[in-house]
Amino acid sequence: MPDDLASRVAGPVLHPGDDGYAEELAGFDLAVSQRPAVVVGATGAADVIAAVRYARDAGLAVGVQATGHGITVPADDVLLITTRRADAVLVDPSDGTAWVEAGAIWSRVLHEAAPFGLAPLAGSAPAVGAVSYTLGGGIGVLGRRWGFSADHVRRLDVVTADGVPRRVTAQDHPDLFWALRGGGGNVGVVTGMQVGLVELAEVYGGGLFFAGEDAGAVLPAVVDACRDAPDEVSLSVAMVSFPDRPAVGPLRGRWSCWVRVTSSGTPARCEEVIAPIRAAATPFLDTVRTMPVTDLGTIHNDPVTPTATNSHSLTLRRVDADTVATLLRHARPDTPFVIEVRQLGGALGREPAVPNAVGHRGAVATLYVTAYPHPTGPSASDGAAERALIADLAPWSDGGALVNFLAGAHVGTDDVRAAYEPDLWDRLVEIKTAWDPDNVFRINHNVPPAR
Question: What is the rounded distance in angstroms from the CA atom of residue 417 to the CA atom of residue 419?
Answer without folding.
Answer: 5
